[in-house]
Each structure stands twice: as C-alpha cells, then as structure tokens.
C-alpha cells in the first residue's frame, strides 16, 4: 500500500516537461541582481562584438525591421521554479549572425546595468535562442528585461540576460556575473547543472 501510493505521487510529480528538482509555477517571479535599468527605445542599441574591434550595431528601428519569430517555450529558473508554455516574440540569434564572419566559439552576453552571462555560441545558434521584446502578446515589461532580453530557454533562466545590450564573441569560456559566484558555466536544467 505504501509503495503504491508513493509511486502514484511520484508519477504525478514528474510532469515530463519538468526537469529534475523543478516545480511548476503559474506566476512570473522577478529575479534581478540590481535595480531595473530604464532604457528609452531611442537610446537602445544591440551590439554584436566579433573581436579585433569588429562589431555590428542595430538600433531599435533596425532591430524591429529584422525577421521576427514567435516562440512558445518552457523556462526553468535555477531557484527551482519552471513555467511551461510561455509565449515570446523576438529576433532569432541566428538572424543576427547571418552573413557575419566569426571565429570564436563562446559568447558573453552584456546587459544595460552591467549584468553579464556566458553562453557557448552553439547554445545560441540553430533555433535555440532569441533576443525577445514581447512576452504574452505585450511589450516585455521592464522588470522582466524590456526593452529586450536574451531568451535561451533550454538553459537555466539566469542565462537569459535581461536588458540585453549585446553579445561579445570570446575565444574562451569566461564566467559572467553569476558564474563567477558559483553558478555553472553552462546550466543545462535536464542535467541539473546548477552550481559548480
Ligand atoms: N540583466 C540581468 N539579467 C538577468 C538577471 C539579472 O539580475 N540581471 N537575473 C537572471 C536570473 S537569475 C533569472 S532567474 C532571470 C529572471 O527573469 P525574470 O525576472 O523575468 O523572471 O533573469 C536572469 N537575467
Ligand atoms: Mo535565477
């Protein structure tokens, strides 16, 4: 009897969309390491830094003129909440890299306000990541990273830099803000790569 009921609870707990150690939330918690920067759209730019001083810069109008994609995806925070079926709109990182010569395999995402997080380039290309500016059909709220945030939903959500200002290509994997404070360098929720 005890075995049956514990097995039943186990199955109910393990939604196949839920990585190990995560629980579901319907809310949308705000997690920010500092104050929320307010970036006017007419001052906003996104910079792709390729190394050797080469860069590509988009202003808001240029960014909005790029092909836009709608994305429905699950997100997983390292503090254990997951939110399923979230809807976003934004520009695929693939689109930003179109026609661009680059040689480095790692990136550092930079944010207005100074936050950084490192993501291997392979985790940003191939339809895996976006610079998102709409959430749930509305412009992304400032506390959730508006005007635009990185969205890398297959990694823990700290990799999805809010208020993103650009991506810097780097030859080596360098730790960003949370990674320097003990968070994992990659952060795959299915492998529970929380801390190191
Ligand atoms: N610029 C910036 N981006 C950030 C953070 C931050 O503090 N600053 N926090 C990260 C963490 S730890 C998480 S869990 C998510 C939280 O996003 P949310 O506040 O929209 O839920 O943003 C990530 N991106
Ligand atoms: Mo987080």
TrEMBL record:
Q: Where is this region: Disordered?
A: 1-20
Per the record, the domain of life is Bacteria
Q: Which SUPFAM superfamilies match?
A: Oxidoreductase molybdopterin-binding domain (SSF56524)
InterPro entries per UniProt: OxRdtase_Mopterin-bd_dom, OxRdtase_Mopterin-bd_sf
Domain Oxidoreductase molybdopterin-binding: from-to ranges: 34-178
User: Could you tell me what this protein is called?
Assistant: Sulfite oxidase-like oxidoreductase
Organism (species): Gryllotalpicola reticulitermitis
